[in-house]
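Could you please consider the sequence and fold following this short note?
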Amino acid sequence: MSQTALNLVAISIFLMTLSVLLGPLINLSPTIPALATFTILGIATLDSFSLQGKGASIFLDWIASFSPEHRDRIIHHEAGHFLVAHLLGIPVTGYTLSAWEAWKQGQPGQGGVTFDDAELAAQLARGKIGAQMLDRYCTLWMAGIAAETLVFNNAEGGGDDKSKLAEVLKIVGFSESAYQQKQRFHALQAKTLLEENWSSYEALVQAMRERASVTDCQSAIST
């Protein structure tokens, strides 16, 4: 069972316990928390046996999607990745804006922008990566966080991006202290690229908001 599913089980137990303690005080029908708990446990079970560990993530992402700011953050975050990839010559192969879309396309995690990273994978498999290749991808991975920070003054997403960066830097022999320095440096690099191409970024955000194709998104950048 995934960690997210385990978290849902813990939440359901907490809700049931809370309803037993507070239900009589607020005249809460025991049916309501029972149905809520049953639903959450059902999702956790489905997550483990049918959705390859993504059911809980899809459920939580669906709840979060009711927030307009959450949806807007995702679009701006992923547009940051898309634009920086385009500017650095890294081919974009697709994008998703929710865990549900990602699952339907067979993508891992919460989804996002996907790239043709075969050359990167081949170099990592050999345990050696060129400095230019490393810099390009490190800047790409930090671009979502940079975009969110520029638009919202902070970043709520980007945990997976930081993990990718740390994993690759570890493979090529960087220390933990050097990783922190690289993270800050490439976040600044991404921020600079976005600021220098801000009109293209805004056009791309609008295109992605309308779920335009990759080709149409690239056209919006170039316009």
